[in-house]
Amino acid sequence: MKFDTGAEDLPVDASMSTGNPNTGATHVAREDCLHLADPEWEALQRLSTVIGEAAVATMLRTLSPTEQHGVALGFIMKEQRETAARATVSTPSTPRVESLKLHVNSYVER
Predict the structure, then answer these.
(1) What superkingdom does the record give (predicted)?
(2) 5 forms bridges with which residues in the sheet?
(3) Which residues fall within 8 angstroms of residue 39, CB to CB, at 6 or more apart?
(4) pLDDT (tens digit, 9 = 90+) per residue, 42-87?
(5) Which residues on adjacent β-strands are paired with residue 12?
(6) With contact defined as beta carbons under 8 Å apart, do 84 and 75 qualify?
């Protein structure tokens, strides 16, 4: 998607001004967001499955690059917390079945 620059130097999708919602206004290409690192871009792609592609596209058009980095990082941290929570819940601790044997030499005082 090619963006024009708006009055405040924010990216503006020219197709949005036509009022036609079917013009691809919800798609933002990777080359339009080169300021984002690959993991950040991938996180925003995953976020689009949660909140919708249109919401992420709007966010990319309206937020500053610094704010975009923050949103991506926040989503990555949320995913990590959820993964950690699932890992602690899904792996119940089972007591050790076999006994632990220690081999200790007898102490002889000299």
Answers:
(1) Eukaryota
(2) 11
(3) 72, 76
(4) 999 999 999 999 999 999 999 999 999 999 999 999 999 999 988 8
(5) 4
(6) no
